[in-house]
Design a protein that fits this description.
mainly alpha, 5 helices
Length: about 130
């Protein structure tokens, strides 16, 4: 599933911007994983009312504290989708076109639908507290 997301966005940015970057595609994989983790968190929060706390009430402080975590997250993903692995993924799907409707729908189902469900469940959980 995440290899599909990598391939889809690699080909999309190659088509749209004309450059081949495994970093952007791996960043999109990281974003998708975060959306999926957010969905799991919102499901747990909806059913158990348990939530992960924040460090502070200050948005700027939380952002500074989480910055190294985010940088480390993207570095790990970039190392996971290194050149050889990226070439393997692209070679495996060489005959597929990213712009086919089934590929676009599948990418939307993997990213947007979990995000919308997570937002809805979180709003319900917060309003019931």
């Amino acid at each position: 599933m995440y290899n599909f997301i990598f391939w889809f966005f690699y080909k999309f940015f190659e088509w749209r911007k004309g450059f081949k970057s495994s970093f952007i595609a791996s960043a999109m994989v990281g974003l998708t994983i975060l959306v999926h983790l957010g969905l799991v968190h919102s499901i747990i929060r909806y059913f158990t009312r348990f939530t992960i706390g924040v460090f502070s009430n200050s948005y700027g402080y939380n952002r500074l504290i989480l910055l190294p975590v985010v940088i480390l997250w993207f570095y790990i993903l970039y190392q996971f989708y290194y050149k050889k692995r990226a070439d393997e993924i692209l070679e495996k799907r060489k005959k597929n076109k990213f712009s086919e409707p089934k590929n676009i729908i599948f990418a939307v189902l993997l990213i947007v639908v979990p995000l919308l469900i997570a937002i809805k469940l979180t709003n319900i959980a917060v309003s019931n507290q």
